[in-house]
Amino acid sequence: xxNSVHPHGHRTPLPPVQAPAAGVPTPRAHPAxxxxxxxxxxxxxxxxxxxxxxxxxxxxxxxAKYLAIVLVAMAHSxxxxxxxxxxxxxxxMTVYTFHMPAFIVxxxxxxxxxxxxxxxxxxxxxxxxxxxVIFEVAYTFFKRWADDDPTQxxxxxxxxYLTWFLVALFVWRLTVPLWKLVRWPLPLxxxxxxxxxxxxxxxxDLDLQRVLQFLPFFVLGLCMKPEHFQLVRRREVRILSVxxxxxxxxxxxxxxxxxxxxxFYRRDSAQELGFPWWIGVMMTLALFGCSVxxxxxxxxxxxxxxxxxxxxGAGTLYGYLLHGFLAKGSRFWGWFDDYAWLHKPAGEIFVTxxxxxxxxxxxxxxxxxMFRFAMEPKMEWAFKRDAxxxxxxxxxxx
Length: 398
Known about the structure:
Blueprint: H1 59-78, H2 86-109, H3 118-146, H4 164-174, H5 176-181, H6 185-197, H7 208-213, H8 215-223, H9 226-232, H10 235-255, H11 277-300, H12 316-332, H13 335-338, H14 345-362, H15 365-375, H16 387-397
Helix pairs in contact: 1-2, 1-12, 1-14, 2-8, 2-10, 2-11, 3-4, 3-12, 6-8, 6-11, 10-11, 12-14
């Protein structure tokens, strides 16, 4: 069995998504990379005092987030198949190389404007911290019921299953001012990730191994500019990405029986995996390089125009967190053990289609409205009103 350390659970799946995210929590309006999307000024013909048109979401990023969350769900559905199918293991390893890095790069890109301004801190609390608490508790009770494990503890310091990403996003966002300050942010982030992978004493608290080992992708997103995304979307890059993906699949097929996919989860140190520290250093740098290349290839094939699924890009965090109940439930209830045909080629295709369909439905606007209380609570009662908010309220009442 090549996948000897399973990704879901305590020190033993991944794991969305801002998001968020990454499925990634994102600003309600994404500024398009072109300068033409900047808010109009009076020189553009906007009358003084008139309301300015809202910024439009960039279809490219919504498409990327939706396609990435579909890959996340598909990879989770393949995990139970990897013990008996070398093809499933190769696909699993290939997708795990770039699906979360793609999410995290987008999260970093849309965190470039984050500072300690009160309204942004409030959004960080309501859009990331509160959903983490709610889903950490919900997953715990679900495991107690579905897995018949009444001893499963509620531990906000030890994220279970998919909730690690919310912890990581919270920590990464708070560090944005630091990465803007230093001269070489990406090399520094890589150094931090490398030190983490050779530090077995970090422990499970807040899943810090993942927070630190995935950090370079968030910092990479912070460093990116609109022209970088334009560069990877060029026609020659799309053409070149086809043989690169083919080579990645062949390499993964060769490596499947020789390498544990646990390296892709980035939740353990090299020593905890039974390897010397220098192997951890080499794997960290090699996986980062492979992930960046495949993420660029993935972005190259993301549609730029508005598609039927573009609207679902705003709900990827919903799909990320909600699909986990079905993904874990299928294991708790023994579906992959009870139905042997799922391990046949037709069954593997069926599982893949079901996973993609389910996560698509969970990203739809009706589901977003249903669970907005947990994912995007307003919580005005919990915060002090600043002077600007008081002025707006007085203006409305006058």
